[in-house]
Specification:
The chain is an alpha/beta fold. A 5-stranded parallel beta sheet has the order 2-1-3-4-5, sandwiched between helices. The chain has a single domain, classed as Response regulator (Rossmann fold), CATH 3.40.50. It has 4 helices and 5 strands; from the N terminus they run βαβαβαββα. Helices cover 37% and strands 19% of the residues. It is globular and about 30 Å long.
Amino acid sequence: MTENTFPAATSVLVVEDDFLVRSCAVEFLSDCGFTVLEAADAPDAMAILEGAQVDVVFTDVNMPGAFDGLDLARRISHRWPHMAVVITSGRGCPDVEGTCARFLPKPYMLDTLTRLITEEAGHHAKPDSGRLAG
């Protein structure tokens, strides 16, 4: 992308157990101007969500831990319905019932990830967030 069309101060939580995949996504999104947090599994992501302001969660489905990325998306949809979620998997599209998540198949292009995050941040922005449209 040649111009910065991302919502100002959009924060993204990247949840991915594969360190290299997570690092690549975090670095790219940071370079695009997003505020990026990261977690290696769904329970760590929930802990981060308890204390941080996050606009979009980008999560892998298959991860070790007490629950996976799909369960994380369901918990987020229940607890923080304004929060956008993008789910990724290399094993096909999961059943996203009970979530308002978008699906991005692996392998994905980083530009496609950025576009989805930008779209979801715009769709899920809280009206009282004080953000300017842009």
